[in-house]
């Protein structure tokens, strides 16, 4: 899952990003509304965690722009105000969910994951394919009943492949969904991660390489 965190309190923004990355999400971070508009114009995000009170461009205007562009991106709006009228106003602008500060990080994770499931064709909370069961909320993977321990990027790649439901996913798409914008696109990180993932999942191999196209399960 690709997430953009937009928060002008840099310590909070970086802490949220670090926590989301530990949950195997690819996370970009910006600290003002103008930078947020720039990023959403370049990258495809599943979820934007958006502070409402932003410098340069207000969070409301960023949210309106996402709605105006007809993007499938879901918006989780954050605010220091817990007033009901503010929450209602945020939802009316086009936010998909609303979370007042301070918040429990476990709740933020749950809400981001719930919104991420709504960016495409609805999928069950636990993904199953080719004898593999993947639970994004519990960060658990089983193959034929055997638990498989995966590093965050390996988990992220497997989740993208599972969500594609048998469709071929290119290396570029995996790079976009499982890594953030600081990753060098010319590295072989995708190929190496897929190789390690295949080994951990065991025999017979379930990740198929489609020459010139990408990978599928």
UniProtKB/TrEMBL annotation:
Against Gene3D superfamilies, the record matches this protein to: 3.40.50.2300, 6.10.250.690, Winged helix-like DNA-binding domain superfamily/Winged helix DNA-binding domain
What's a single GO CC term here?
cytosol
A molecular function GO annotation: transcription cis-regulatory region binding
SMART domains listed in its UniProt record? REC, Trans_reg_C
Please provide an example of a Pfam family that matches this protein in its UniProt record: Response_reg
The answer, when asked if Cell wall biogenesis/degradation is one of the entry's keywords, is: no
User: Does the keyword field hold Oxidoreductase?
Assistant: no
Question: Which keywords does UniProt give here?
Answer: DNA-binding, Phosphoprotein, Transcription, Transcription regulation, Two-component regulatory system
The OmpR/PhoB-type domain extends over 124-217
Any idea which residues the entry calls the DNA-binding region?
Answer: 124-217
Where along the sequence do coiled-coil regions lie? none
Biological process terms from the Gene Ontology for this record are: regulation of DNA-templated transcription
Q: Main role?
A: Member of the two-component regulatory system CutS/CutR, involved in the regulation of copper metabolism. CutR suppresses a defective melC1 gene, encoding a putative copper-transfer gene, probably by altering copper metabolism.
Q: What is this protein called?
A: Transcriptional regulatory protein CutR
- What species was this sequence derived from? Streptomyces colonosanans
